[in-house]
Amino acid sequence: MKFTITKEAFLDVLQQVQHVVSSRATLPILSNVLIEAASGSIRLTATDLDVGVSAVISADVQQDGATTLPVKRLASIVRELPASEVSVEVGSDNQASIKSGPSFFKIIGLGEEEFPPLPTFDDGKEYKIPQALLLNALKKTSYAISNDETRYVLNGVYVSFKEGKVTFVATDGRRLAMVENDLEYPASNEADIIVPAKAVAELQRMLSDDGDVHVQLSGSQISFEIDGSLIVSKLIEGNYPNYKQVIPGQRKERLSISREDFLNTIRRVSLLTSESSNSVKLSFSQGSVDVQANSKEIGNAEESIPADYNGEEFSIAFNPTFLMAPLKNLNEETIYLDLIDSMSPGVVRIDESFLYVIMPMRVTQQK
């Protein structure tokens, strides 16, 4: 195998695939990237057996062939190369010679026959989703994925294809984010799946605002094809909890407020929270909300912010990290906070189909 490629293009495609490789790979081959050169392009593929990523890039291929090389070391070498053109030649012994300007490296690979193949999706359900829709939905929900491995069904984004809609949900038991969109697909393609966090992260790196994603679903596997690149993943098996149960019904009060001003105020006030007192208290009055933090060992902070509020005066406390999460991932100028009382969950909403349920914390007395 022999090909020449620009340093920038080679590094870009290596970075696309290397994130999926675990630093604690159980097999040596899983630390490697499969490189296949043919017909004026090279395809790079990496996998950890749960998630696989494959991407294609144009190259000047002088000799077809395939091999596997240690992906993180290869990416480190390419990143440091002094010239803009890289020449790669691999012999029958899977030793790769890499030349760029005055630099020369030889690294030892493994045969491509050892590399585990990605699954195929011959008879799977198929969907076409606009990239912008999928990227927006994952951005607005994925931060609420649980990292508690004992609750493995929460370690991903729940995706439901039902009644001409696609719904995305993520929760860790203390907050829940949901986005719903219309989507055309045959009724026979209705399905409920859980896409693991790692695949969600890879998707977000690869998605853009243009074009469509071709999704295929077969058994316990899913694939996403994006502009010639491919992400395949095992799905999380199990029953996702009934998320609709935790969404409060009728609201009692509604606060309308500038998203950016609210976010910046919470960020400043939360500087005075601590591990033992990790909450901010929101006190509502006509036309404003008072944001407070109080920590015996640190001190206290308070800031008032104008808001469209005409309800009863009362207070509620939230974890500031959880409260800021949706505000950081939304683009809308105005958000709404729907409330019932100081002990019931609050719901962040926007004018589009999005909601974020956040459980309250015990209101501490401010000094």
Automatic annotation (TrEMBL):
Q: Which processes are annotated in GO (biological process)?
A: DNA strand elongation involved in DNA replication
Indicate the quaternary assembly. Forms a ring-shaped head-to-tail homodimer around DNA.
Q: Where in the cell is it found?
A: Cytoplasm
| UniProt similarity note | Belongs to the beta sliding clamp family.
Q: What is this protein called?
A: Beta sliding clamp
**GO MF annotation, one:** 3'-5' exonuclease activity
Its cellular-component GO annotations read: cytoplasm; DNA polymerase III complex
InterPro entries linked to this entry: DNA_clamp_sf (IPR046938), DNA_polIII_beta (IPR001001), DNA_polIII_beta_C (IPR022635), DNA_polIII_beta_cen (IPR022637), DNA_polIII_beta_N (IPR022634)
Taking every annotated instance into account, which residue ranges of this chain make up the domain DNA polymerase III beta sliding clamp N-terminal? 1-119
Residue span(s) of domain DNA polymerase III beta sliding clamp C-terminal:
244-362
Is DNA-binding a UniProt keyword of this protein?
A: yes
User: Gene3D superfamilies in the record, alphabetically?
Assistant: 3.70.10.10, DNA Polymerase III, subunit A, domain 2 (3.10.150.10)
Its gene? Answer: dnaN
- All residue ranges annotated as the DNA polymerase III beta sliding clamp central domain in the record: 129-242
